[in-house]
Design goal:
Strand order of the largest sheet: 1-2-3-4-5-8-9-10
Shape: elongated
Number of helices: 1
Low-confidence stretches: 11-24
Helix content: under 10%
Distance between the termini: 28 Å
Structural class: mainly beta
Strand content: over 45%
Mean pLDDT: 83
Order of helices and strands: HEEEEEEEEEE
Radius of gyration: 17 Å
Oligomer: single chain
Largest sheet: 8 strands, antiparallel, barrel
Length: 170
């Protein structure tokens, strides 16, 4: 079921973007993001030539996480199609019953779903493939996460993940 949903989403995104074949900057993009603690759907909207907002819906074992990022984008290595970006944001979500994996390896088991809050950073590179509506990126996401385990009791974890993205630009 999950695989079929991803295949359908990828096909729809590629067909929607097929009419826009150019190698210039784009206004918005939608696609998939893989790696780290969550895999999911990504959307990016440029407010101006250098500033973008990125939204993510990430799916993890026993939970879902919603993330919003504010990003600054600049040409990298004098290659017009290659952008360096950095920024910050926050997330909210849930970690359901089961094992909660942490960056330092001190995994925990929770008997019921938990509220998940956090602050995020992002730094990465994005390449828009010339003459196609496809942009691929790799980024590093450091962050701080709080997990509510009982009333007024929170666990804090540092997180660090690497993500790969594939988006169709519009």
């Amino acid at each position: 079921m999950k695989t079929s949903t991803y295949k359908l989403l990828i096909t729809a995104i590629l067909f929607l973007g097929a009419s826009r074949l150019q190698a210039q900057d784009y206004k918005w993009a939608a696609g998939l993001k893989f790696g780290g603690y969550e895999n999911g759907i990504s959307g990016k909207y440029f407010i101006d030539n250098a500033t973008a907002l990125q939204g993510l819906i990430g799916f993890r074992d026993h939970g879902v996480v919603f993330t919003g990022l504010y990003e600054n984008n600049h040409t990298a290595f004098e290659v017009p199609e290659l952008k360096f970006y950095y920024g910050f944001g926050a997330h909210i979500g849930s970690a359901g019953q089961g094992i909660y994996r942490t960056f330092n390896g001190s995994d925990r088991f929770y008997e019921r779903p938990q509220l998940l809050l956090g602050l995020d950073g992002v730094v990465g590179l994005e390449y828009q493939i010339p003459e196609t509506p496809i942009a691929v990126s790799v980024d590093l996401n450091p962050g701080l996460r709080w997990l509510k385990v009982r009333f007024l009791t929170w666990h804090r974890d540092w997180v660090l993940s690497i993500h790969l993205s594939n988006r169709t630009t519009f």
